[in-house]
Prior knowledge:
This protein has one helix at residues 5-18, and strands at 26-29, 48-53, 62-67, 70-75, 79-80. It is of the alpha+beta class. The termini are far apart. Keywords: ANK repeat, Apoptosis, Nucleus, Repeat, SH3 domain. It comes from Ovis ammon polii.
Amino acid sequence: MEExxxxxxxxxxxxxxxxxxxxKGVVYALWAYEAQNSDELSFREGDALTILRxxxxxxxxxxxxxxxxxxxxxxxNLLGLYxxxxxxxxxxx
Length: 93
């Protein structure tokens, strides 16, 4: 194993466990999602969602969230602690 692998791995697992808990439950959409069912919530990339419930008896990969005045299930794999950073386009002058 490379030097620092264990510490990096522990950090990333810790972030994953705290997602939807820290920062008062606020997470950011890393990609857009269009609801497929009436109990799901659509969102755009960069939207700030508040996680109200992370897991229940049935759903582990979908969390219950609020966006504005709407609530619904969201796929947790599209969420992050911070908005996704896009590289700047450089122009040649």
